[in-house]
Amino acid sequence: MIIGVPKEIKNHEYRVELVPEGAENLVHLGHTVMIEKGAGVGSGFSDAEYLQAGAIIVSVQKVWAAQLVVKVKEPITAEFDYLQGQILFTFLHLAGVSVELTRRLISSGTTAIAYETLEDESGRLPILAPMSAIAGNMAALVGAYYLTKFNQGEGVQLGKILGHRHGNALVLGDGVVGFHAARTLNAVGTNVMQVGLNQQLVGRLGGDDLNGVRCYYSTADLVAQLCRDADLVVGAVLLKGRKAPYVLSKAMLQNMKKGAVVVDVSIDQGGCIEGSRPTTHESPVYLDNGIIHYCVTNMPGAYPRTATIALCMQTLPYIIKLADGGVDAFLNITRLAKAVNVYHSEVLNRDVAMSLEPY
Question: Which of 19, 144, 159, 259 has a 20 to 30 A CA-CA distance from 337?
């Protein structure tokens, strides 16, 4: 099969889908790999490295003309005209992005397969997981940064000072993002509260990595109570394929301290903090009612070298499966079929379709 790897053009997105070693593996299996000129530079991989791996360096038009196009982020408006019925394998987040992308995927006959709804044998999301981990770690770091007074934050440092913890963080969600955010915040000495729907969290302190984190079963009343004292709130809620529910309402935000920070990592799926709107690495925050909102939709893109290597390790086996067997290789396995969001001009994934119904 002919596989195309475009250069990402989303705002400050420096990741690339395939590292040279991944391209080499595909070439050795008999596939043709076309890399857009300069696609890997942002992640530290030169065109020469891809050529040495057996790939071909081509124009953007030729990359998108491949049978299978593998990307990192969803196509943006400037790329819509390249959608011409090929197989597209990438992060899509159709429940959270503009409905126009879904319409273009349908009208073009493109088969759209989403990383974020692909499941493993245990029902976990193996491709989403490493990006969620990076975003969780990053949420703690950017949250602490925007609490600085020169960023219009309240001037509270999150961390342990001479044995005493300072700053309060509330983590909404107990998945991969929530775990990494809570662990990072806890490690520097923040007072961390985490809420989720995992019954095993109730009434216990975290395990070895979360020793000291206070964990609670999430209810609206509890979130409303805890957010009042929070200096940082991390939104880390995920419903597979669906738009994220609002866990922190506008009414709750109004009761938070002025200069507090919210980092809505769920913004890719529409956001779990009511009123959140997507931002970019170029303009990452906005102030709303005295609360700083950080809602960047491609957070891991800030660390492209780490993110690219981690992403390729997870995606390569599935790219090989698609290249060897086509879409049927996914459709014939239930957990992989969930990744096929759009097929034969209809939304195939039920959860994604439910989120798009109002449109």
Answer: 19
